[in-house]
Each structure stands twice: as structure tokens, then as C-alpha cells.
Amino acid sequence: MIVHTLELADKRQLGRAFEAVLEGAAASDCAIELDALRIRFTADEERAAKIIRELVEGGGLRAAAREWVDTGMVAANAVFSRAKER
Q1: Which of 14, 26, 36, 59 is the most exposed place for a label (fewest CB within 10 A)?
Q2: What does the pLDDT look like over 49-85, one tens digit per residue?
Q3: CATH number, position 14
Q4: Structural domain for 30, as ranges
Q5: Number of folded domains in the chain?
Q6: Which helix (DSSP H) or strand (DSSP E) does residue 7 occupy?
Q7: What DSSP line would sit under 8-75, residue for residue?
Q8: Rounded distance, CA 78 to CA 34, Å?
């Protein structure tokens, strides 16, 4: 499964991203990290690309990444833990 990770500029943009992910049930799983202004979600490539494109056009998206994971869920604190290790 591909997990998409978005880092936003502020809490308002994080809220916009969360609404975009929830809109039309685009994501099958979602996790939010308020302190890091990060949202992680699973969605098919077409839906994820649409969400990311809309966020880029609206401004406030600092970074976007995707990674393959073998588990069936998004683990928000896994990203936080790895960030501390760096």
C-alpha cells in the first residue's frame, strides 16, 4: 500500500488538507500529526494526485512524499519517531 505524507505550512493549511482527504472518502486511512503539521493517508494514485495538486494550487504545501508500506494502516507516530532519529 502507498502512504502519502504531506507537510503543511500552518494549521489552516493542515485543516484544508484534512478536508480534502476526507472529501468523497478519498482516503482509506488517515493520520494527523498536529505538532509536525503533517498528514498521512492512503488513497489510490489518481485521488492522491488530485488532492496534492489542489493543495499546491492553493498554497501552503511544504512537502509531499509517498512510500510503500507492508502494513494495513497508517502509523502517524512512526514518522515522528523516524524524524527524531535523524
Answers
A1: 59
A2: 888 998 899 888 999 999 887 765 555 554 443 444 4
A3: 3.30.70.100
A4: 2-85
A5: 1
A6: strand 2-8
A7: ESSHHHHHHHHHHHHGGG--SEEEEETTTTEEEEE--HHHHHHHHHHHHHHS-EEEEEEEE-SSSS--
A8: 14
